[in-house]
Amino acid sequence: MSVMVDEAPVWRSLLYVPANNRRFVDGAHSRGADAIILDLEDSVPLAEKAAARGALRRSVATSGRGGADVLVRINRPLRMALADIEGAVRAGADALWLSKVESPEHVRMLAEVVSEVEHEQQRDAGSTKLVAVVESLAAYFRAEEIARSDPRVVAMGLGSEDFALEAGMAPGADTLYVPKQTIQFAARAAGIMPLGFIGTVADYADTDAFAETVRRARRFGFDGAACVHPSGVPVLNAELTPTVDEVADAEKIMTAYEEAERQGLGAVTVDGKMVDVPVVERARRLLARAAAIAEKDRRKEGSADG
């Protein structure tokens, strides 16, 4: 079955919400996140997983009312994973958050199940995207293969806490620097979205420090990140959005370069700096990113007004 996946979504902020907590689920749409991750894994006790899975149709619809994409974080044990996939795809989830991915073969196996359920539900093939999360040393050394494993995979990240545990190191910005950057490189090489920041998802209590962490993540090439508390959402949205000055500078570069091309000139200078092809491409990408974010925010505002 041929699978086509649309262009990468805008996910600056992805808010974890325990899928068994109805109060949190009901309030998730009001938090302003680009995406909601309905968690069936770590935050849900084993005895409550079946009920949380059974409530997904309602939970997905409720969480998406504010214009956010809705992801479902599935469990790793295969029997639970298959049940989670069935429930999430039937519920209309936009994407699945694949915890503890081990290999490209693992991703392709789960993607095959997704395809079967989509077909049964008469959903468009490829409409359910996948996020691959690397959390083990074995998977880490196959990160680029995992990133390229299936057309449904639109993003990849590192599960900091579990990875640090297996690696025998403390989770922190210094110890996670190399693993996080490796995942970022693997994602970019595969043409998918790198998610995360150089730290752990638990570091949110100090808002100023968290903002600096997110700014650093953007400098290192990350497009979005998950957070466990709603206070992280506005920080992620603000810090991962191009500023007005950045947009203005990019527009100036594009205008100057296009004018130089029309005049048959091989080089152009903007504000005393030479502009070459990489600079122009960076400006083009920033403007495309800013436009996609603006459209995402318009949709969220429209959903909130409705």
Summarize the structure.
The protein is built from 13 helices and ten strands.
Task: Tell me about this structure.
By secondary structure, the chain is α/β, with parallel strands linked by helices. The protein has two domains: 13-239, Phosphoenolpyruvate-binding domains (TIM Barrel, Alpha-Beta Barrel), CATH 3.20.20; 244-305. It contains 13 helices and ten strands. The strands form two sheets. An eight-stranded parallel beta sheet has the order 7-6-5-4-3-2-1-8. The protein has a two-stranded antiparallel ribbon with strand order 9-10. Helix 1 (22-27) links the parallel strand 1 (13-18) and strand 2 (35-39). Helix 3 packs across helix 4 (78-91). It is globular, with a radius of gyration of 20 Å. It starts with 12 loop residues before the first strand and ends with a helix. The model has no long low-confidence stretch (mean pLDDT 94).
Could you tell me the radius of gyration in angstroms? 20 Å
What is the element string, with H for helices and E for strands?
A: EHEHHEHEHEHHEHHEHEHHEEH
Please give the count of helices. Answer: 13
Q: What is the spatial order of strands in the main beta sheet?
A: 7-6-5-4-3-2-1-8
- Structural domain count: 2
Please name the CATH topology of the largest domain: TIM Barrel
Q: Which second-level CATH architecture of the largest domain applies?
A: Alpha-Beta Barrel
Mean pLDDT: 94
